[in-house]
Amino acid sequence: MRAVGVLKHGGPDALEIVELPEVHAGPGKVRLRVYAATVNPTDTYQRNGAFAAMQAKKGPPPYIPGMDAAGVVDEVGDGVTQLAVGDRVMAIVQPSGSHGAYASSLVLPAGSVTHVPAGASHVEASTLPMNALTARLSLDRLALSPGQTLAVTGAAGCYGGYVLELAKADGLHVIADTSEADRELVRGLGADVVLERGEGFSGRVRELFPDGVDALADGAITGDTTFSAVRDGGAIAVVRGRQGDPGRGITMHDIWVSEYLTAWDKLDTIRQQVEDGEVTLRVAAVYPAENAAQAHRRLEAGGTRGRLVLEF
């Protein structure tokens, strides 16, 4: 089968087409013929060597990146009842060695796979699983009640945008940061209050909410520069590891989407929310798999809104 991977870590041009042995679905698993795989920031770390020590423990290269895929089920293992051959599906993938979403064929636990939202293409559906599940996990850990206040940094990004939309669906009051260029985008995602991003964001939040908001989802990875926006005894969700100690009785939640790798009920609920118009799918551009290096270069240049997708 055909895949995009790295034999030697490096810049975007380290990505190349590789051939891998055919895989088959064992008990509790399904095999996908992959048609689309999304390019995420974490994929660049799989490529550039940031995860080299961890990758080496999984075996020799090629190392295949990718955490989101969409395609058609073409093999079903024993014990799988919710999926059948021919189903159009999307999936979250945990890259490990030569197993990653940048491949024409994938074997995955059935709990990582659900149907594509009605009316969505494979390209559109592939942008959803990892970021939306990360957002869902963040909100579940923050455990806010309807009417409480949530600040979101990086609201124009995919993680931040899904936090915003899912929070509104949960009945929360959302305060979002954005640049002037993305103000209408963030308002369109449902933010109740839109504030200028960057230095001074916490102060601007406190002007409106003197005691601070109930919680913060730090999608922009701003660290302790925004922690003061949160009230005493509040909560903060951070991605990519702990970024400081806010004190004041604030609870920090480190968010690792691997916790929801087989949370089929969560992923399928998000699928339904897409169909109900509560969650949107945003595609920035589509590239043939052979042009993966170009997609990585564009992602690393910054400013992408929506996701870049590889087609197989």
Description of the molecule:
By secondary structure, the protein is of the alpha/beta class. The protein is built from 9 helices and 15 strands. It has helices spanning 41-48, 52-57, 122-126, 129-142, 158-169, 183-188, 201-208, 264-275, 292-301; strands at residues 2-6, 15-19, 29-39, 68-76, 88-92, 105-109, 113-115, 149-153, 173-178, 193-196, 213-218, 230-239, 251-255, 283-288, 307-311. Strands 3, 4, 5, 6, 7, 14 and 15 form a 7-stranded mixed β-sheet that branches. Strands 10-9-8-11-12-13 form a 6-stranded parallel β-sheet, sandwiched between helices. Helix 9 (292-301) links the parallel strand 14 (283-288) and strand 15. Helix 4 packs across helix 5. The chain is globular. The relative contact order is 0.16.
